[in-house]
Amino acid sequence: MRVRVLIFLLMLPLGAAAQGFAGLGTDADGFAVPERGQALAFPRDHGAHPAYRIEWWYVTATLTGADGRDYGIQWTLFRSALAPYELDGWQSPQLWMGHAALTTPDRHFVAERLARGGIGQAGVSADPFEAWIDDWRMAGPGFNMLDLQARGAEFAYDLSLTAQGPLVQHGDRGYSVKSQDGQASYYYSQPNFAVTGTLTLPTGPVALTGNAWLDREWSSQPLSADQNGWDWFSLSFDDGTRLMAFRLRGGRGDFTSGTWIGADGSATPLPDGLIEVVPLDLTGVAGREVPTRWRLTLPDKALSVEIEALNPQAWMATSFPYWEGPVRVTGSHDGKGYLEMTGYD
Amino acid sequence: MRRAAIACLWSHWARHPLQLLTLLAGLALATGLWSAVQAINAEARSSYAEASAQLGTGQFDELRAASGPIPLARYVALRRAGWQLAAVLEGRMPLPGGSVEVMGVDLLAYPALPAVEETSDINGITPADALLAPGLLIARPETARRLRAQVGLPPVTRSQNLPAGVVLTDIGTAEILLNRSAEVSRLLILPDQPAGLAPLADLAPDLMVVPAEGRSELARLTDSFHLNLTAFGLLSFTVGLFIVHGMVGLSFEQRRGMIRTLRALGLPLRDLTWLMLGELLLFALIGGTVGLALGYVVAAALLPDVAATLRGLYGAPVDGDLALQPSWVALGLMMAVAGVFAASAQALWRLSRVPILQVQGQYAWSAQGMPVLAQAGIGALMIGAGFLALAVFDGLVAGFVMLGGLLMGAALLLPPLLTLALRIGSGFSRGPLGAWVWADMRAQLPGLSLALMALLLALAANIGVGTMVSSFRLTFTGWLDQRLASELYVTARDDAQGTEIARWLHSRADAVLPIRSTEVQISDQTVFLYGIVDHPTYRDNWPLIAATPQVWDMVAEGRGALINEQMARRMDLWPGDTVTLLPGWSLPVVGVYSDYGNPTGQAMTALPALLQRVPDLPNTRFGIRVDPAEAGDLRSELADTFALPPQALVPQAAIKASSLAIFEKTFVVTGALNVLTLGVAGFAILTSLLTLWAHRLPQLAPVWALGVRRDTLARLEVLRSVALAVMTAILALPLGLVLAWALLAIINVEAFGWRLPMHLFPLQWLILLLLAVVTAGLAALLPARRMHHLPPSDLLQVFANAR
């Protein structure tokens, strides 16, 4: 029932015509637009940018439990602005949406939260850093040491994140181009958090350790009108190198981009066309076919790997449904990572 | 044979079309009145259910503050503790022609509402429209029209999926419209909560959880009102059945010869019974269908007033439009069929006993079923049982059981009492003609008794209800004068303006009485707690119905509380008891005041004492005491100085007028049913007299033969009928007064929560008596006319027939 209202609330303002996934391809009337060469500044840019239409704080973690099993968690806070400013109280045009998920090899738990800015129910402050919606929270003295909490009807997690390397700015010093037309977003990551903590399942608590990846992105029109979905990979290889790669699917063909991250945290942007991703297997998920096994090749780095979902049924049945879950990587490089796929209707 | 029998049975109706018409009319009246009431009730109930579904109320538990609104910060704190809640801010917004209820919901959290979905799906409204200033109002087309007529309101979109008089909007828009920022009226507890939450009792001990099922205050309040209507519908139905009974009895009686012949010709009794049953069923369906149509018309005519009453009295959202519901049709027809068979049971039973070869007896049909004494005993027993039910059980239903027992018992007692009266009366008769008239009345009584019972019930109901309504009107107008003592009532835009207005008025008015209240929860019920200043206006005028000595001193010092009658009765709190107004603040009840027309509980104490506990009490409403001659000037001066809209300045007279209008509408239905019931009773007398007519000739012919002229006989015919009606009316008076007492002291207390003093209105009784005389006279007129025009040959023939 509520989902329809949410679509009413979040989908329609961004254009009645189904342009792109979640309306991300609309015009940016009145909203600020990312500009190339604008240097990011921290800790300021860890906080919210109300003048931009959309923004997110996106954490995924691949984890191993004390029981030896693999787990994955997602913690995301989205900001969606109806107008490019912030006001106090209920008058605020800033809407917030939280998604939390916990994936095991055979279960996938999802929870969603919605809130309005202005009243204190959700928001982000840069210094000291805190991002929250209801009782879900990511906070710490700085961006290097974060506590991460969320819970749903059947699951909860409480994790400590400690950065192991520097922030990584994607594209041109954080200016990440998203289409042939030049649509772009500001995009940086902390791809290397060491994680400890516990998660609570219906069967009881599990202690675990692992690795987390935090993405920060904000923009006002990151997609072209004809782009209707993406496949996004964040992979951590056993040799300490990392890869962020995405493919944006559009009417005029695919647009691929990514960042190669060295073991020391150094970033190499990968412009359109260098990365090739090919779906290998489709799985029936929530009434549609979603590719859950992929081949990804990056000849520049002699990379050719097969990527397979830990749990192919990691469907996010939220207001905007999408697929997001942990993956295993095998081939020229072994490792773990996260896969997000949108626009498979 | 069967076909011949059918033709035979039908030929009776073909020869007596008036009889058929009367039978069907009686049935239609009975079904019609009953169905009208049912249609009104069903419509009102479905309106409540629809409103609840349209607003999502009544499905979820809620959090409410012990007093007043919940600060927004509390909501956010509970959210940040993990609780999934939806905030609602409600309040009334004044508009010309009556205020509307603004329901502001957090559109992001509130469960999906049909109106919102309709708005987005059909009208293509975007959330930016709804969530960004100036916002968006959603209302029914009628309400939307009124909103659009106002300048300065946000854009309005129409939706059929909302109750009348409700404006749905985002909470951000509502806080501006209602001028109540950073507060929330109530919090819905949403169904999906995360695991491991801290209990609400720990997080928010000052907020109370009101369970969804415990919140049906509207249903509880209006149930009584609907039960009231149902009782009247049932009364009309019963009275209508008297007509059916009379007509069926008459037709069976007149067909005795035919029945005997059919039986003698070899038609088995079983076949005959089935045929007769089929005939009755057909009549029931025809009469029932006509009745349903009639009921629909009556209901449609009465519904707007009922809707106005329910809205005015309870704030219940009821439409003035009537929708036809299939269950209503089925139920109405069922009632008609059941009624016909109940009314014909006696006749059918007699049919099975018709001796084939025996000659018709003189009192064959109207023979007494029950010895007079036994009937009197049963009647007394029923009255006793009714009062016993009231003594043992509480509540509205017990009240109606008592009334039912009283009315039925009294009806049963009527023939024995009339017999007694006639016996005594015959002692005073002079001359043979007088003796004959008295004796003839006694002989007529068994056949007329059912019709007279109907008249008794109708008259008693009229006296009872009339006394109640008039007592209420008298009390109510007096009470309004006391209660609305201030000459002018003003509502400021906000607290700041309120303070300014009070300061401005200080030198211009005799007194400025702040009207400041907060909503509190006492025993799970919403009560409005008022803080008042000490002023002679209260001391001199306030309508106390129970009080301790020095009541006003106690209130002025904040050492006692006054409560309204509704609250006193519902919670059984009276002077001497203690009431907990807020957690940790209890005061002795020092007085109870009458508070008609208000469905909710109310309490009052000293303003300073209340402000100590609830510092942020709104300060926007005032009663102004001023020389009545200057009230008009002061009003326009106030309006000019503070740019107040007309609805913010209400003179005393306007409030009185609107209160009285609501009151009048409350009893329109009762009055209408009352008149119809009396009409039905008159009709019953007519049918009974027509029934008896067949037997009258053998009794009248000898008197005529002795030299009494036909016109004298016709006059005596009318006189007898009127005399019986007068006797019935006299007996109806005490019954009606007991009924009035029961309505005032029992039914009203249960239905509305207040008890009214009973006043007597002898002039009304006189009018009713006249009405009864006219009714009975008119009913006797038709048989009397027949008598008058009867050819002497017919009278002579009586002697020719072998008897």
Automatic annotation (TrEMBL), chain A:
Keyword Zinc belongs to the record: no
Keyword Signal in annotation: yes
InterPro entries named among the record's database cross-references: AttH-like_dom_sf, AttH_dom
Domain of life the protein comes from: Bacteria
Signal peptide start and end residues: 1-18
Keywords associated with the record: Signal
Residue intervals of the AttH domain: 54-220
Official protein name in the record: Iron ABC transporter permease
Species in which this protein is naturally found: Ruegeria spongiae
From TrEMBL, chain B:
Membrane spanning residue stretches: 229-252, 272-303, 328-351, 372-393, 399-424, 445-465, 667-693, 718-743, 763-782
Subcellular compartments: Cell membrane
Membrane-topology descriptor: Multi-pass membrane protein
Keyword Kinase: no
Domain ABC3 transporter permease C-terminal: 231-355, 674-792
Domain MacB-like periplasmic core residue range list: 450-605
Keywords tagged on the record: Cell membrane, Membrane, Transmembrane, Transmembrane helix
Superkingdom of origin organism: Bacteria
Predominant subcellular localization, coarse grouping: membrane
Protein name stated in the entry: ABC transporter permease
Organism, scientific name: Ruegeria spongiae
